[in-house]
C-alpha cells in the first residue's frame, strides 16, 4: 500500500530539493531531514513491549521498541543519503547495503553488492531509495531480502512515480511504500517528472 506523507515541512523541504540551483550540501541536509520526518510515519506499525520504569515519584508502565530487530538497507548509491536521517530516530538499527544497477541492454537488475545482517521473522526491515522510478531495483532488492528470510518489509522513498508504485505493488503487495511525493510520470530515460533529476549526482556532485 502506498502512503504519501503529507506535511507542510516535507512539502517545503522537498520544493527546495527540486530546485536545480540547490547545491549538494543543502540537498544532503534536506534528504536527511525529510527521511527523518517520513520515518516517524513509516514506523507507526512497529511493535512495542511493556516495561516498568521508576520515575522520581513512583513506578509506572513504559514502552520500548525493540530497535535491535530493526534493519535499515539503503540501495546504493543514492539510498546512502537517507541512512543518517533514519538512524537519528533508530540509532540501534543494523545497516545492510544493496548495490544494484539496471543493465541498459537487458533492462534487468544486476546486483553487484549485497550484505545484510541476519534476517529473521521479526526483523523490521526498511529499504531506502530516494527515487522509486521504474521499480526494477526496488523489486529486485525486496526479492533478495525475502529470499534471506525477511518478512516485515517497508520501502521508503522521497519521490515515487505512478509506474514504479504500480510495478512494486504488483510484485510485492505485502510491502508498504512510504514517500514524500507521488509525481506525474516517468520519461523515456526512466527519470521521474517533474522529479529532481538524478538524486545520486545531486548528492555527490558527479555531474
Ligand atoms: N533515479 C534518479 O536519481 N532520478 C530519477 O528521476 C529516476 C531515477
Automatic annotation (TrEMBL):
BP GO terms, sorted: UMP salvage; uracil salvage
User: Which cofactor is recorded for it?
Assistant: Mg(2+)
On cofactor binding, the record's note says:
Binds 1 Mg(2+) ion per subunit. The magnesium is bound as Mg-PRPP.
UniProt keyword Glycosyltransferase present: yes
Q: Which UniProt keywords apply?
A: Allosteric enzyme, Glycosyltransferase, GTP-binding, Magnesium, Nucleotide-binding, Transferase
Q: Which residues bind uracil?
A: 192, 197-199
> What controls its activity?
Allosterically activated by GTP.
Note whether Glycosyltransferase occurs among the keywords: yes
What does the record give under GO molecular function? GTP binding; magnesium ion binding; uracil phosphoribosyltransferase activity
Q: Which CDD domains match?
A: PRTases_typeI (cd06223)
Q: Which InterPro entries match?
A: PRTase-like, PRTase_dom, Upp_B, UPRT, UPRTase/APRTase
Q: Where does 5-phospho-alpha-D-ribose 1-diphosphate bind?
A: 77, 102, 129-137, 198
**Ranges of residues in domain Phosphoribosyltransferase:** 4-206
Give the CC-aspect GO terms: cytoplasm
| Catalytically driven reaction(s) | UMP + diphosphate = 5-phospho-alpha-D-ribose 1-diphosphate + uracil
Q: In which pathway does it act?
A: Pyrimidine metabolism; UMP biosynthesis via salvage pathway; UMP from uracil: step 1/1
Tell me which EC number(s) this protein carries.
2.4.2.9
Q: What class of enzyme is it?
A: transferase
The record's annotation in PANTHER family points to:
ADENINE PHOSPHORIBOSYLTRANSFERASE, URACIL PHOSPHORIBOSYLTRANSFERASE, CHLOROPLASTIC
What family does the database annotate? Belongs to the UPRTase family.
Among NCBIfam families, the record links this protein to: PRK00129.1, upp
Q: What does the UniProt record say this protein does?
A: Catalyzes the conversion of uracil and 5-phospho-alpha-D-ribose 1-diphosphate (PRPP) to UMP and diphosphate.
Q: What is the designated name of this protein? A: Uracil phosphoribosyltransferase
Organism encoding this protein = Fervidobacterium changbaicum
* Taxonomic placement: Bacteria, Thermotogati, Thermotogota, Thermotogae, Thermotogales
Amino acid at each position: 500500500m502506498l502512503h504519501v506523507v503529507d506535511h507542510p515541512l516535507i512539502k517545503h523541504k522537498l520544493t527546495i530539493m527540486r530546485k536545480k540551483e540547490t547545491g549538494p550540501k543543502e540537498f544532503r541536509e534536506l534528504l536527511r531531514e525529510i527521511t527523518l520526518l517520513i520515518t516517524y510515519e513509516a514506523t507507526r506499525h512497529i511493535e512495542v513491549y511493556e516495561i516498568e520504569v521508576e520515575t522520581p515519584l513512583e513506578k509506572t508502565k513504559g514502552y520500548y521498541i525493540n530497535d535491535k530487530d530493526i534493519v535499515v538497507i539503503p540501495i546504493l548509491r543514492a539510498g546512502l543519503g537517507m541512512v543518517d536521517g533514519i538512524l537519528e530516530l533508530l540509532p540501534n538499527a543494523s545497516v545492510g547495503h544493496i548495490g544494484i544497477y539496471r543493465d541498459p541492454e537487458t533492462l534487468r537488475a544486476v546486483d553487484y553488492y549485497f550484505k545484510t545482517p541476519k534476517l529473521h521473522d521479526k526483523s523490521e526491515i526498511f529499504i531506502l531509495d530516494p527515487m522509486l522510478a521504474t521499480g526494477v531495483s526496488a523489486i529486485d532488492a525486496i526479492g533478495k531480502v525475502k529470499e534471506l528470510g525477511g518478512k516485515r518489509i517497508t520501502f521508503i522513498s522521497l519521490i515515487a512515480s505512478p509506474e514504479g508504485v504500480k510495478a512494486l505493488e504488483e510484485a510485492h503487495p505485502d510491502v508498504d511504500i512510504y514517500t514524500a511525493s507521488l509525481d506525474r510520470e516517468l520519461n523515456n530515460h526512466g527519470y521521474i517528472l517533474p522529479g529532481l533529476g538524478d538524486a545520486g549526482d545531486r548528492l555527490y556532485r558527479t555531474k
